[in-house]
UniProtKB/TrEMBL annotation:
Subcellular location: Membrane
Transmembrane regions listed in the UniProt entry: 59-80, 86-108, 128-153, 173-192, 204-225, 278-300, 321-339, 429-453, 465-486, 492-513, 534-556, 568-588
The entry's keywords: Membrane, Transmembrane, Transmembrane helix
Entry's Gene Ontology cellular component terms: membrane
Biased composition (Acidic residues): 1-10
Species per Swiss-Prot/TrEMBL record: Neorhodopirellula pilleata
Keyword Transmembrane belongs to the record: yes
Name the UniProt record assigns to this protein: Natural resistance-associated macrophage protein
Keyword Membrane on entry: yes
Region annotated Disordered, chain positions: 1-22
Main location: membrane
């Protein structure tokens, strides 16, 4: 990807205030050297080498998007649709790269901190909502990453060579968690240093992402080599199939079509509700609300400005998109080979006693019992559990396969399933390292984002003390998983406030940057025009629609959640209060008279 020669025009040659470090020159010797490297590479037609050498913020995005959420989502896609849903990851990351590219374009074209620009030029409620949602997401979703790292050590890495694992004691959890917190904090603080420390941070993060890619890519290659995966099916799965929003995906479509009318109606309804939710979430949430905050501030921290716009797009495409597609696709392929349309012999048995010995029976029992209740109708209330179990056992095997497809699996179950193919030791090592790398890299980036966010929250973008405070707040919040995340009720409410608020704010953040990309007041002469503007708006519009659909789905899920009836009123209250704040924000927006600064 070649840099735009216009990016090098009208360069500032006199010092100006650094957006996140007032009093320090924006154009430091390091930035001038990087700019000269880009200029020389462009003149020689060898931009690739320069881009690779200078890349960085895109890898930060990769480190956070390849976390526990992506792992769980990819696993479920493979379980539900086999390899037929691989296209979702590609579409998801393309839309994510589009929005992040727009954010980088606005930031590098103006040189302004986005939080300040949104508050001054758009709406302070949007800016503060963006910031608060980012901090909440950092603090709360750091918890499951610590848990994921502990599980990788406990269930896989510490059991190599016949070990018994770390155990489930609180002392073991706190000890490991403290070590992870110290290590992650040390790595994050290297990022605020200059010279060799900052280079080590970049290289460490790239190595961590590389390890994750190698682990899961290696599993996929072995599956191909062993003939466990159909290459043609994988290629076909990369072609978008929007009919999957209306019909079951993969081999499950044939299973549903072959059932009795009553069975088809029941399972199609149950299956499609889950499948659509997973698809919408995959498309819309490859980029989280805190990722939209990280990108601009990580670029400004490096002194990047207008001449670096081409590098920013390259960095996102290679540092973020390629690792994401590789890892998530490999997880989908492995999950498809292990779980899609698979059932164990015990569950398939028509003997209730044998069926209940299945390791997955407790996970499918509610779905299969609901199927029996739908047949019994009013008689379900008076039918004994023993009789229902006999009816469940007598259900066709295809219906039991469909029930199994609705069970969420984790990486450690996948590791156990693939042990006969990889070898038990290799399976534990590969999945242990891969999962640990995903969790630990995400912890690092969540802490880093919180450091930037705390600076903005208190209006002191150059404060090292506030940066360290933000880092520690996110880290210590994540470390509290031993106490908070292991309690089901507490975890539920934490997830409600973080995930739902972030889901609601993501489309609003997208719309905000959509407006900024089309604003003459903010971008001035740098606003895209003609065909370029049309393409930007179409692609950004698709990303906004995807994020909006995810937010609506999250709201709908809470509305129909009968097990937690208090969830929807809580979420609705948050939405109403924030909507009022946004409306009021348009009336009280501070008119600072600031103008966009181009360099």
């Amino acid at each position: 990807m070649a840099a735009n020669s216009d990016d090098f025009d009208n360069d500032i040659t006199t010092p100006a205030d650094n957006p996140i470090a007032p009093g320090q020159p924006v154009i430091s010797e390091k930035v001038l050297a990087d700019r000269e490297l880009l200029r020389k590479a462009q003149a020689e037609g060898k931009t690739l080498g320069a881009y690779v050498k200078l890349s960085g913020p895109g890898w930060l995005q990769s480190a956070i998007t390849l976390g526990g959420g992506s792992l769980a989502g990819s696993l479920f896609l493979g379980v539900l649709g086999g390899t037929s849903m691989l296209w979702l990851q590609i579409v998801a990351i393309i839309l994510g790269v589009v929005m992040l590219s727009a954010i980088s374009y606005v930031t590098l074209s103006t040189g302004r901190r986005p939080f300040e620009a949104i508050n001054s030029e758009i709406n302070p409620a949007l800016g503060w909502g963006w910031l608060i949602a980012t901090v909440m997401a950092n603090m709360i979703f750091c918890m499951p990453q610590f848990s994921l790292c502990y599980d990788a050590l406990d269930k896989n890495l510490s059991t190599l060579g016949g070990g018994d694992g770390l155990g489930g004691s609180a002392a073991a959890k706190w000890t490991v968690t403290a070590a992870l917190l110290f290590a992650a904090g040390f790595i994050v603080l290297l990022n605020i240093k200059q010279g060799k420390a900052a280079k080590f941070f970049d290289r460490f993060l790239k190595a961590l992402i590389g390890m994750v890619v190698i682990c899961f890519f290696g599993v996929a290659i072995l599956l191909f080599a062993k003939g466990e995966v159909n290459v043609g099916a994988v290629i076909a799965g990369m072609i978008p199939d929007f009919s999957q929003f209306l019909s079951p995906a993969g081999e499950l479509r044939g299973l549903v079509d072959g059932l009795s009318p009553e069975g088809e109606s029941f399972w199609r309804t149950k299956l499609m509700g889950t499948q659509r939710n997973v698809m919408i979430a995959a498309i819309a949430t490859a980029v989280g609300i805190n990722m939209t905050f990280l990108l601009p501030y990580s670029m400004l921290a490096r002194g990047w400005d207008k001449p670096f716009r081409g590098l920013a797009r390259f960095d996102l495409s290679t540092g973020m998109a390629i690792p994401f597609v590789l890892v998530t696709s490999c997880v989908v392929i492995a999950a498809a080979a292990s779980f899609h349309n698979r059932i164990d012999d015990q569950l398939a048995s028509t003997d209730p006693v044998v069926m209940q010995q299945s390791p997955t029976f407790k996970d499918v029992r509610n779905s299969l019992t609901a199927r029996v209740d739908s047949t019994l109708g009013d008689a379900a209330a008076t039918t004994s559990e023993e009789a229902k179990l006999a009816m469940v056992a007598a259900l066709p095997e295809d219906e039991k396969r469909l029930a199994s497809a609705l069970v969420k699996r984790n990486a450690f179950q996948l590791s156990q399933t693939l042990a006969p193919l990889l070898g038990e030791g290799n399976a534990k090592l590969v999945f242990g390292l891969g999962v640990f790398g995903m969790g630990f890299s995400t912890i690092i980036i969540l802490m880093l984002i919180n450091g930037y966010a705390f600076r903005e929250m208190f209006g002191r973008p150059d404060s090292q003390a506030l940066f360290i405070t933000g880092v520690l707040v996110a880290g210590m919040s994540g470390a509290s998983w031993v106490w908070l995340w292991t309690d089901d009720a507490t975890r539920f409410w934490l997830a409600i406030f973080a995930s739902t608020f972030a889901a609601m704010l993501l489309p609003i953040a997208y719309v905000t940057f959509f407006l900024m990309m089309n604003s003459d007041r903010i971008l001035g002469d740098e606003r895209p025009t003609g065909g370029s503007r049309l393409v930007w708006n179409i692609l950004m519009g698709l990303a906004v629609l995807g994020a909006t659909a995810a937010a609506a789905t999250a709201m709908y899920d809470k509305a129909i959640d009968q097990e937690n009836p208090a969830a929807f009123p809580t979420v609705l209250t948050i939405l109403i209060v924030y909507t009022i704040a946004v409306i009021a924000g348009f009336f009280v927006r501070r008119d600072t008279g600031s103008t966009s600064t181009t360099r």
